[in-house]
User: Which sequence fits this backbone?
């Protein structure tokens, strides 16, 4: 599948149906980007307040009648009237083997208690902000890239995103492209956002892993910018456990220190990211 398949406009009768799941929210749109990736939007609880970059627990009822939940980063910004999520499809995954078949009008479980470390408050002030992600790890940055506060706090925002194939970059590409003409934040974004997508298997104009392109200095050369330094650069990391460990070591090599909500520093890592196996 090379083109996104979109399903939206939940039937009014379905949307108005009385929820039968605990903490139920109604699916309003589903987009299948590839045979391995999909995104979906759901109604937002009126009481839910979150910071762009945070995650919540979502899921479905398992065969045993108990909630089957996983942590999912909210891909929509804090001002959005709905909630968006971006997910991998795992054929035998306990949750995504079923979640990938949801349609507009269906219900999912959403626990309205957002948490997470990929928030602007967890970083010290700086000039340049790096978003470093692989696969569906771009989800929290999809939220932060659409938040005006990101551009108010930083002079430049660089989105590095690596996938195996070009089609797997489409969700991020379309999002970044749409920001230029966004009536709400287009002017705020301006030319501050730099998008640096790469592939590891299929030929593309930029290739290589995030780790390799940082370590070799290729990304700095390609973008015509100086290497990272602790005074000016801040970073957020979201990917597999191995990716997080490798990137953390690279960032520390540039002199950056890991922070948290309670101790803002130069970079933060999302340890609750859900990838393969869900």
Assistant:
């Amino acid at each position: 599948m090379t083109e996104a398949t979109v399903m939206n406009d939940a039937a009014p009768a379905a949307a108005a149906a009385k929820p039968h799941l605990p903490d139920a929210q109604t699916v309003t749109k589903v987009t299948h980007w590839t045979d391995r990736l999909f995104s979906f939007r759901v109604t937002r609880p009126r009481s839910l307040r979150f910071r762009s970059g945070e995650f919540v627990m979502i899921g479905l009822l398992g065969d045993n009648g108990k909630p089957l939940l996983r942590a999912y980063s909210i891909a929509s910004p804090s001002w959005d009237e709905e909630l968006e999520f971006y997910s991998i499809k795992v054929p035998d995954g306990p949750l995504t083997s079923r979640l990938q078949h949801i349609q507009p009008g269906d219900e999912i479980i959403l626990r309205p208690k957002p948490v997470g470390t990929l928030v602007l408050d967890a970083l010290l002030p700086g000039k340049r902000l790096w978003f470093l992600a692989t696969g569906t790890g771009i989800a929290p940055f999809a939220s932060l890239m659409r938040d005006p506060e990101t551009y108010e706090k930083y002079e430049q925002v660089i989105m590095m995103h690596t996938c195996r194939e070009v089609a797997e970059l489409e969700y991020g590409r379309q999002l970044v492209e749409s920001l230029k003409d966004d009536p709400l934040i287009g002017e705020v974004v301006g030319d501050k956002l730099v998008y640096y997508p790469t592939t590891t298997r299929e030929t593309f104009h930029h290739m290589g892993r995030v780790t390799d392109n940082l370590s070799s200095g290729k990304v700095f050369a390609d973008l015509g910018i100086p290497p990272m330094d602790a005074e000016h650069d801040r970073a957020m990391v979201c990917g597999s456990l191995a990716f997080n460990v490798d990137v953390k070591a690279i960032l520390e090599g540039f002199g950056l220190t890991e922070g948290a909500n309670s101790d803002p520093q130069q970079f933060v890592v999302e340890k609750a990211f859900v990838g393969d196996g869900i």
